[in-house]
Amino acid sequence: MDDFLVIDHVSKTFGTQRAVDDVSLTVAKGEAFSLLGPSGCGKTTLLRMIAGFERPDSGRILVNGQDITALPPEQRPVNTVFQNYALFPHLIVWENVAFGLRMSRRPREEIRSGVDRMLELVRLSEHARKRPAQLSGGQRQRVAIARALVNRPQVLLLDEPLAALDLKLRQHMLMELNTIHEQVGTTFIYVTHDQGEAMSLSSRIAVMNAGRVEQVDSPAHLYETPRTSFVASFIGDANFFTGTAVELQHEGYVRVYVDGLGSPLVLSNGTVASRQLLRLMVRPEKISLTLTRPASGERVNAFRGVVEDRAYFGTHTRYRIRSGEHSILAQLQRSRFSGGDIDPARGTEVWMSFHPDEGRVVRLEAAA
Amino acid sequence: MSTGTRTSRQWLLTLPSLTWLAVFFVIPAILVILTAFRPADLQGGVGPGWTMDTLHELNDPAYLPILWRTFSLSAATTLICLVLGLPVAFQMARAGQRLRQVLLLLVIIPFLSNFLIRIFAWKSLLHPEGPLTKLLISLQLIPENAVLLHHSGTVLLVLVYTQLPFAILPLYAAAEKFDMGLLDAARDLGAGPWRAFAKVFVPGVRRGLSSAAIMVFVCCLGQYVIPQMVGGASDEMLGSKIAQRVFSDRNLPHASALAGGLMLAVLVPMLIVVLWQQFGRKEES
Q1: Mean pLDDT over residues B21-43, rounded?
Q2: Does A277 share its domain with A303?
């Protein structure tokens, strides 16, 4: 059942803008999946095509083996939690949740028990007779979730579900959404521009950019082995260097010559040809700083630089270090056991080093 | 900062319009009602003293059909205007900025020409020798000897024509504020396009609906030019009767009694609607 929801070579163009460009995805039954990307990347258009509000120019969308590409929204086994919730202001909470069941003309008794059970699930039973305007943001969102889930959709779409909430509530609702997903077991598709949200809500994420899917992977894989520099920079921070492959080693390592930094050894992350121009990436927290040159060895990449800027964030400290024409971001977490770590002031000359496993080759944008 | 000064300033700001209303509406209305209790004199003026005679005269069964016609024609006009105006307002609110301006202009354009001239235009359009009658006969859509003018259907048609913009404008104002995303939500939850319109859009603009209904209904009740010009002899409305009492019978108290009665018949239901709206708003906030 790995192909419960299938997006099959779907494209959509608005005027001259290719909003969704030949996207193919599969989502498993019961999975929590995220479409992640900056605004304008096509994720919302893709969501609207799954919901049925837009018709793809080409390609198919299947749910549980059924081709729903040509179905209007009201006939799809899909329900949506809208970004602004879109609750009906003239109906009370109970009637909002009952709306879908009434539209499908279910028996009165089934509607009553279904709505009551769903309001219990989102803990809103005592607010059943209020109007949406009388609810807080978090409560409104729970109404929107209940209103969608009560119809037992095969796929639940959630469009930026936490964007309208303040920070505190957002963290709470994050947990709540995970709990609800566990309880109902429905396939959840989140659309979000917030990488933190996507990483904590879903088991797999499709990172989208300019209408295309750059990479589909688990949160940890996306962070540790991003395939493109877009993915690397969109999920977390990253230092990028452009260089030439000078020495291919066994076990997937490659030595890359970077002007001004020497030739660090990194993971090649796929096939690399000798003399190939490529880009390598190192996360700021993977770089350690020392005052003296670290014990040299084949497997340590080290280079010198001068601290240009230092910013303290409580949980960590960030340094901007200049090395020739390169400006490198490093991030340190202070603890008694981290031993060698230092806290260099601005202007201090330091050594930066990272393990070859922590640096990787990412695709150049042009190759994507 | 005190609320006292703020409310007194608000009162001060409404003073000009309140004065205007009092001088040109409330006082004349009271004078009209008072006139109903004065005796008529032979010169078409008002005699001395007070009397209830005029009110007794109103108890004339000849008024009943006129009253019924006035209210049923007004109600039918209101209903048709709402039914026609709702989709127009809906499409206007959904249209792009430029198209919306054009549509709005088209709704307002008829007001640029005089009301009487527009009624005359209908009269010549529907005249037995007029272009519309000839066209419909040549297309064999109506029989050879059909008369389009001077019956109650004509009155209804022209009433709808004159009142439609007054329905569209408040409906459009409400539709423009309506969140069209709610229609997506309704579709998503299984409602077809028509059900989404009926279950979500119509309740969403209910305040515009009641404003439009009051506007059209009240304007219709007082009409006398339209039934006079395009209606037949048996299409008199209450307005025609009032005009007749003033201009041909020269009986001011009688006209005042009719006008006062009509005014109360309009004001009382309107007050109920306004209070209901006020109550509904409180409940929602």
Answers
A1: 88
A2: yes
My answer on whether A244 and A219 are in the same domain is no
Domains of chain B: 62-284 (1.10.3720.10)
Number of structural domains found in chain A: 2
B91-118: pLDDT as tens digits: 999 998 999 999 999 999 988 888 899 9
Q: Which residues from B are below 8 Å from A when comparing CB atoms? A: 179, 181-182, 184-192, 195, 199-200, 203-204, 206, 283-285
Please spell the DSSP secondary structure of A269-338, one letter per residue: -S---TT-EEEEEE-GGG-EEESS-----TT-EEEEEEEEEEEE-SS-EEEEEEETTEEEEEEE---GGG
Q: Hey, are the CB atoms on A80 and B187 less than 8 Å from each other? A: no
First to last CA, chain A: 30
Domain of residue A360, residue span? 237-367
Q: Given B179, B190, B206, which is nearest A74 (Cβ)?
A: B190
- Tally of CB atoms within 10 A around A107: 9
Which residue bears the tokens 């279910």? A106
Helix-strand-coil split of chain A, %, nearest 5: 30, 35, 35
Of residues A36, A11, A6, the one with CA closest to residue A23: A11
Determine whether the interchain pair A80/B204 forms a contact, defined as Cβ–Cβ distance below 8 Å. no
Residues 22 to 61 of A: which have CB under 8 A from any B CB?
Answer: 51-53
- Integer Cα distance of B130 and B133 in angstroms: 6
Cα separation of A321 and A351, whole Å?
10
ipTM of model:
0.81
Residue whose structure tokens are 């009209």: B32
CATH code of A58's domain: 3.40.50.300
pTM of structure:
0.82
For residue range A179-232, list pLDDT tens digits in order: 999 999 999 999 999 998 999 999 999 999 999 999 999 999 999 889 888 999
Whether the CB-CB separation of A38 and A230 falls below 8 Å is answered with no
Q: Which of B195, B203, B204 sits opposite A103 (nearest CB)?
A: B195
Beta-sheet strand order (sheet of A155-159)? A78-81, A155-159, A187-192, A32-36, A204-209, A212-217
- Of the residues A199, A229, A259, the one at which a domain ends: A229
Q: What is the pLDDT of residue B228?
A: 87
| Partner-chain residue, chosen from B189, B206, B284, that has the shortest CB–CB distance to A99 | B189
